[in-house]
Design brief:
Blueprint (H helix, E strand, L loop, with lengths): L1 H157 L13
Length: 171
């Protein structure tokens, strides 16, 4: 009986060991399954992170390219603004020059008009002086002409001995 108990116990131990082995196998399979799932998750996470890293690199490249393009556009705009300012400066200088020439021309014309007016006034004064002189001479001549016969009469009255046309000669 002892031997049967031992065999039975040995059989039970064998069954328990087989069950433990089966449990161990199930646990091992579960562990391997969990490990595989963890590895897949880790691999997927790594791929996701790698993909996100590449995406961020692309975004950085695009942003850098956009910054460069914006800098180029800004540089072009600055050049255009500088060219516009230069053009405006030159235009203003030309305008100032033409305005100065216009003022100078206007001043020259005013000065010429003033000189012409002065010349005309001087010519009028000379003409008037000449006319006054001529008038004075004519008046003087006319006065002398008118006074001459009166003087002759007066002289005749004063000196009756002067022989004149009414005088008789003693020949």
């Amino acid at each position: 009986l002892d031997r049967a108990d031992q065999l039975h116990e040995s059989y039970l131990k064998k069954i328990a060991k087989a069950a433990a082995d089966e449990n161990s196998k199930v646990e091992e399979i579960a562990f391997i399954t969990r490990l595989s799932a963890d590895m897949r998750r880790l691999t997927f996470q790594q791929r996701l992170e790698l993909s996100e890293l590449r995406r961020q690199e692309k975004i950085c490249e695009v942003q850098e390219k956009q910054r460069e393009e914006q800098m180029k556009r800004d540089a072009i705009l600055k050049k255009q603004e500088a060219a516009d300012m230069e053009r405006l400066y030159k235009l203003l200088k030309r305008l100032e020059g033409s305005e100065a020439r216009r003022r100078e021309r206007r001043d020259d014309l005013r000065e010429k008009a003033r000189k012409d007016e002065a010349k005309r006034d001087a010519a009028v004064e000379r003409r008037e002086a000449l006319q006054a002189k001529r008038l004075s001479r004519l008046t003087q001549k006319e006065t002398q002409r008118l006074e001459k016969p009166a003087r002759v009469k007066e002289l005749r009255r004063e000196s009756p001995d002067v022989s004149g046309p009414n005088c008789t000669s003693t020949q």
